[in-house]
């Protein structure tokens, strides 16, 4: 019995093949945005592969973490490349995820019937930040240690549960080796497990509903009666995706060879915080906003004044498909709000980058 | 009450004016002490003695307020009534020494004062008269942070020092020294006047004992020097150990350039190419230069590798060892012989070479990575070009 027939009896290969053959991707002026999701997925896959390789040598304890990363970078063949690609890919993944999120907002791709696609995607987006935050501490270097201390301190301002939350995140009152072990577990087991489920849901839903067409294109179709042109998913879209992925791979390799990710100094729990402590770039806007926030206002602490609007913004994003009445006016308001949020984050990030260490 | 206080202040001013001729003879007072002449009662409120329960009458034992100044020759014996009384001091401050007065009597200051020379320093000149503070208080003129300025009040006074046949440059020299620089950087272990000249038994260390004074901190150097062939020669020539090369107050930061037979090197002050020991000086000079050059080269290579993003912690560690050996080698100069100088110099040179090799290896690895990247980029470009052609050839839909 031929292998194909044997397989088809057990897996609906023919059905899948037929579905893929019929799958098409709309072509319009915003079609380029469709590649952003695939690009994010590519960086995520790079993370999975390089993360798995790093796991072979990494040791998650305060006494060994830094040394093990140093060992990976200096002794393990191509260890420097794997670590640098892992670090750069993490940053590019967050950049791609940001671009993907805003492209979906601007093209209103979250609308009915894609509410669950949006929810699953947005949750993966939030988890990406958790990946970044937990992974940042793992090399156990000075910058990461103090940035984590500042970062994990923030939930402490929440009334009632704040202190418990900080204790839970740190595995104690302060950032210690217990925090490192905890972050490691979260980074390599808990978050990947949740991400796998959410990402699978997201991708399945994308396949099920197909690519969303922006309202402007829908209007054009209605006005002209001409359907939106489309290209076959295979091979047209896949080959273009592959082109983008290959470019991304070249970019990763170049960055890793010419701008290898630094290791810095080993964290010293008893040393004073060095000047210029900053979180990763994707948290910089919040870090800078905290700097500008007054110490207290109407009895509320500065941290709370920043955290509450940010949390409400995140909640509003999650509920976006349900609160947007999907009218031309509401879509315009959402575009304006998204643009304002982008300007605010970009300005705060720029200010944090140019600020001199105090 | 206010009228009474005004009267007392007026009487103080009269008394101070009467004492002016005496005050003119004594060395210039510190800010605190000068102020005490005009407002001693106010200053005394913050005096360590006031806090211990003493009053004006405790020192001004004769007469009634307003009290007159105490004669300068009587000050030290007066202080000694308490400060040399072990039984009394035990109750007030058991940690304080009780032999200061005895020491003072053995000092040049004490001897001259006992002989009736009132221009020399007594207790209040260094500690202040009223508003006196413990020496560990940085506001005290005798505190380590201020003691050089306190000594300089007299020892930089040309007229006063000339009268005693003394130079007036030691404070200025100390100020220009490596010790002063270290002290100003906040290194409280760096010596000030009273570190070498004991504060109460203030006698200049003699030529024979200066090495012992330096040895308080520079233990290993002194040990090597005492066993060196140089020691008996210096003793024979009556030269003062360490200060023959380093001077006494204007001590400069040591440099490898000290060791050479050409001016302005220190060795060249006494030695020339024809003299005995010239070969040792030459080999030391060569050893120091080799080691310094090796360390500089290794440091430059490691810096270059690090700037390029390579991790060279191993090289840094080995370079650190080379620097340690350099310190030891410089120290071993004080043996004035090939051994142990040559051993540590050779070890340092070897460590520096090892560090340089690690840096060079990192740079080679970097080149290898970039070559690898170039090959990978070519392959990727080829693949991208193929893809591009394939995409262009796809039928339009």
List keywords for this structure.
heterodimer, A: 358 residues, Cytochrome Bc1 Complex, Chain C, two-stranded antiparallel sheet, two-stranded antiparallel ribbon, 70% helix, 3% strand, B: 397 residues, mainly alpha, Butyryl-CoA Dehydrogenase, subunit A, domain 3, 0% strand, elongated, disordered N terminus
Fold and architecture overview:
The complex is a heterodimer of chains A (358) and B (397). Helices cover 70% and strands 3% of the residues of chain A. In chain A, the strands form two sheets. In chain A, strands 1-2 form a two-stranded antiparallel sheet. Chain A has a domain at 32-260: Cytochrome Bc1 Complex, Chain C. Chain A contains 15 helices and four strands. The mean pLDDT of chain A is 92. By secondary structure, chain A is mostly helical. In chain A, strand 3 (296-297) and strand 4 (300-301) form a beta hairpin. Chain A has helices at residues 3-10, 13-22, 34-55, 65-74, 79-106, 115-137, 142-153, 162-170, 177-209, 215-224, 233-258, 281-292, 302-318, 320-323, 328-354, and strands at residues 24-26, 230-232, 296-297, 300-301. Chain B has two domains: 2-204, no CATH class; 278-366, Up-down Bundle (Butyryl-CoA Dehydrogenase, subunit A, domain 3), CATH 1.20.140. Chain B has helices at 2-25, 31-38, 40-44, 48-51, 56-59, 72-83, 86-92, 100-106, 108-114, 123-127, 147-155, 158-163, 170-175, 178-184, 193-196, 210-214, 219-226, 230-237, 241-246, 278-307, 313-332, 338-393. The model of chain B is unreliable at 1-36 (pLDDT under 50). Chain B has 397 residues and is mostly helical. In chain B, helix 20 packs antiparallel against helix 21. Chain B has 22 helices and no strands. The interface between A and B is medium-sized, with 28 and 21 residues.
């Amino acid at each position: 019995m031929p292998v194909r027939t044997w397989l088809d009896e057990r897996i609906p290969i023919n059905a899948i093949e037929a579905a893929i053959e019929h799958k098409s991707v709309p072509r319009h002026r915003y079609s380029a945005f469709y590649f952003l999701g695939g690009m994010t997925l590519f960086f995520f896959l790079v993370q999975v592969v390089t993360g798995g390789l790093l796991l072979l040598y990494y040791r998650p304890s305060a006494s060994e973490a830094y040394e093990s990363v140093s060992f990976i970078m200096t002794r393990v063949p191509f260890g420097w490349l794997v670590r640098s690609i892992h670090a750069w890919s993490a940053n590019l993944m967050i950049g791609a995820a940001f671009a993907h999120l805003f492209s979906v907002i601007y093209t209103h791709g979250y609308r009915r019937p894609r509410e669950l696609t949006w929810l699953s995607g947005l949750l993966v987006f939030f988890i990406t930040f958790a990946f970044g935050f937990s992974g940042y501490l793992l090399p156990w270097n000075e910058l990461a240690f103090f940035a984590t201390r500042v970062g994990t301190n923030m939930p402490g301002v929440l009334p009632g549960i704040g202190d418990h939350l900080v204790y839970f995140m740190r595995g104690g009152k302060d950032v210690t080796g217990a925090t490192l072990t905890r972050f490691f577990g979260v980074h390599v087991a808990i978050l990947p497990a949740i991400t796998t489920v959410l990402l699978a849901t997201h991708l399945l839903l994308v396949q099920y509903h197909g690519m969303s067409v922006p309202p402007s294109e829908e209007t054009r179709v209605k006005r002209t009666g001409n359907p939106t042109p489309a290209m076959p998913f295979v091979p047209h879209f896949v080959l273009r995706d592959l082109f983008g992925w290959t470019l991304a791979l070249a970019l990763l390799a170049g960055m890793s060879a010419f701008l290898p990710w630094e290791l810095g100094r080993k964290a010293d729990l008893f040393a004073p915080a060095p000047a210029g402590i900053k979180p990763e770039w994707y948290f910089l806007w919040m870090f800078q906003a905290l700097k500008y926030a007054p110490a207290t206002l109407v009895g509320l602490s500065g941290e709370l004044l920043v955290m509450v609007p940010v949390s409400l913004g995140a909640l509003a994003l999650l509920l976006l498909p349900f609160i947007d009445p999907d009218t031309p006016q509401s879509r315009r308001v959402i575009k304006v709000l998204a643009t304002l949020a982008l300007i605010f984050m970009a300005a705060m990030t720029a200010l944090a980058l140019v600020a001199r260490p105090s | 009450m206010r009228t009474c206080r005004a009267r007392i202040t007026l009487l103080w001013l009269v008394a101070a004016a009467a004492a002016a001729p005496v005050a003119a003879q004594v060395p210039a007072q510190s800010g605190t002490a000068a102020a005490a002449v005009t407002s001693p009662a106010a200053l005394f409120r913050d005096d360590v003695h006031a806090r211990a329960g003493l009053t004006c009458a405790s020192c001004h034992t004769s007469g009634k307020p307003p009290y007159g100044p105490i004669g300068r020759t009587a000050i030290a014996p007066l202080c000694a009534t308490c400060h040399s009384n072990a039984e009394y001091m035990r109750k007030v401050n058991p940690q304080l020494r009780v032999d200061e007065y005895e020491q003072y009597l053995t000092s040049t200051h004490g001897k001259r004062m006992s002989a009736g020379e009132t221009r020399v320093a007594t207790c209040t000149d260094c500690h202040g008269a009223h508003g006196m503070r413990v020496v560990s208080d940085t506001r005290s003129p005798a505190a380590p942070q201020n003691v050089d300025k306190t000594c300089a009040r007299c020892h930089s006074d040309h007229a006063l020092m000339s009268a005693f046949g003394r130079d007036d440059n030691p404070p200025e020299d100390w100020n220009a020294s490596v010790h002063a620089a270290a002290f100003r950087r906040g290194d409280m272990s760096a010596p000030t006047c009273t570190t070498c000249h004991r504060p109460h038994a203030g006698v200049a260390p003699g030529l024979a004992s200066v090495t012992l004074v330096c040895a308080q901190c520079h233990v290993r150097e002194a040990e090597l020097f005492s066993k060196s062939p140089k020691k008996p020669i210096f003793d024979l020539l009556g030269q003062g150990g360490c200060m023959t090369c380093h001077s006494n107050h204007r001590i400069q930061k040591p440099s490898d350039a000290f060791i050479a037979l050409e001016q302005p090197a220190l060795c060249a002050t006494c030695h020339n190419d024809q003299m005995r020991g010239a070969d040792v000086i030459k080999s030391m000079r060569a050893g120091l230069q080799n080691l310094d050059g090796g360390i500089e080269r290794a440091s430059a290579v490691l810096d270059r590798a690090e700037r390029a993003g390579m991790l060279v912690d191993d090289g840094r560690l080995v370079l650190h060892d080379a620097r340690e050996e350099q310190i030891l080698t410089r120290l071993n100069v004080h043996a004035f012989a090939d051994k142990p100088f040559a051993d540590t110099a050779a070890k340092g040179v070897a460590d520096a070479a090892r560090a340089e090799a690690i840096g060079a290896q990192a740079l080679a690895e970097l080149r290898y990575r970039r070559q690898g990247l170039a090959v990978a980029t070519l392959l990727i470009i080829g693949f991208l070009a193929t893809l591009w052609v394939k995409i262009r050839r796809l039928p339009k839909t």
